[in-house]
Inverse folding.
């Protein structure tokens, strides 16, 4: 997961940063993910990868490697301990090509 495929124009980068800094947006994302995604200029493949929790696809289309782990923690659990472990395991499963890890 190097920077060879990094595409700084992906709207997913903005989404992740916004989720990191806005507790209100995280709550809204958890309650109505589609409505939040609608606000971002996501490509079809970006949106599909987010909806199916396919981190490998996100990396393949240019997600910055550093942001994948952050996104996994935001989606699957951000607290220390069990929540963080679940997030890391889901990220690894996706990167191993095990498909949707939702």
């Amino acid at each position: 997961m190097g920077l060879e495929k990094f595409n700084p124009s992906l709207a997913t980068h903005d989404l992740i940063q916004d989720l990191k800094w806005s507790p209100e947006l995280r709550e809204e994302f958890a309650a109505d993910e589609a409505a939040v995604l609608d606000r971002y200029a996501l490509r079809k493949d970006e949106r599909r990868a987010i909806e199916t929790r396919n981190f490998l696809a996100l990396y393949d289309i240019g997600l910055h490697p550093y942001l994948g782990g952050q996104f996994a923690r935001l989606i699957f659990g951000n607290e220390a301990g069990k929540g963080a472990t679940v997030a890391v395991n889901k990220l690894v499963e996706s990167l191993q090509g095990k498909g949707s890890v939702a």
